[in-house]
Structures are given as structure tokens and as C-alpha cells.
Amino acid sequence: QVQLVESGGGLVQAGGSLRLSCAVSGSIFSINAMSWHRQTPGKQRELVARITRFGSTNYADSVKGRFTISRDNAKNTVYLQMDSLKPEDTAVYYCNAVNNLNHWGQGTQVTVSS
């Protein structure tokens, strides 16, 4: 089993920055990849950024050059640094971990005001 706890969401003005954290516990060594997703009401959850166990990363086109996913293995934490935030980045952000199952955190709200 893997447990995920997100933190770091909040309200920020357009152009500002936030850093989301995802604390991981449980069967950490079984995880193949971790990612951040986001969802707004009435829309499907979408992939924002992903990092594999080998450190490879990929991003949604809408966040490339503004968001950075990283991890701190010593702290068992994955981060999403979000810069140059836009109102359209407003969403609930979820942390995800994949081994033989999909594991989700509870989500954290990010609101970007114009």
C-alpha cells in the first residue's frame, strides 16, 4: 500500500508562485512513477507533470516552462513548483503514485486570481 498526502495549495495572484508537496509513505520502493494531476468541476482529471523512478520527467503543454516536478528521496516527498501562475491553473491538484495500482492523494485546492 502507498499513502499520499498533499499540501501547499492556496490562493495566489496571477503571476505568482506556489509549491505543492506530496508526502509518500508505505511501499515506496514499489513505485514506478509519480505525477501531479488537476481537475476542475465538470472536467476530466488531467495530467500536469510526471516523474519516473529513473528521474525522467514530462509535462502537459499548458504548463511547460512554468511548472517543475521534482523529488527528494531522503524526505520521501515529490514537489510541484508552479511559477507564473495563470487563472486557468485554478483547480484541485492531486498527487498520484503508480505501482501495480493507482494511488491518489486527497487533493489540494489551488486558486489563482486575476
Classify the beta-strand content into a percent band: over 45%
Rg calc: 13 Å
- Strand segment tally: 11
Determine the mean pLDDT: 96
Tell me the quaternary state: single chain
Tell me about the largest β-sheet.
7 strands, mixed
Treating each run of at least 4 consecutive H or I residues as one helix, how many helices? 0
Question: What portion of residues is helical?
Answer: under 10%
Quick recap:
With 114 residues, this protein is mainly β. It is built from no helices and eleven strands. It has strands spanning 2-7, 10-13, 18-26, 33-39, 46-52, 57-59, 67-72, 77-82, 91-98, 102-104, 108-113.
Explain the overall architecture.
This protein has 114 residues and is mainly beta. The chain is built from no helices and 11 strands. The strands form 2 sheets. Strands 2, 4, 5, 6, 9, 10 and 11 form a 7-stranded mixed beta sheet that branches. The chain is globular and about 40 Å long. The termini are far apart. The mean pLDDT is 96.
Which characteristics define this entry?
114 residues, mainly beta, four-stranded antiparallel sheet, 11 strands, globular
Spell out the blueprint of helices and strands.
Elements: E1 2-7, E2 10-13, E3 18-26, E4 33-39, E5 46-52, E6 57-59, E7 67-72, E8 77-82, E9 91-98, E10 102-104, E11 108-113
Parallel strand pairs: 2-11
Antiparallel strand pairs: 1-3, 3-8, 4-5, 4-9, 5-6, 7-8, 9-10, 9-11
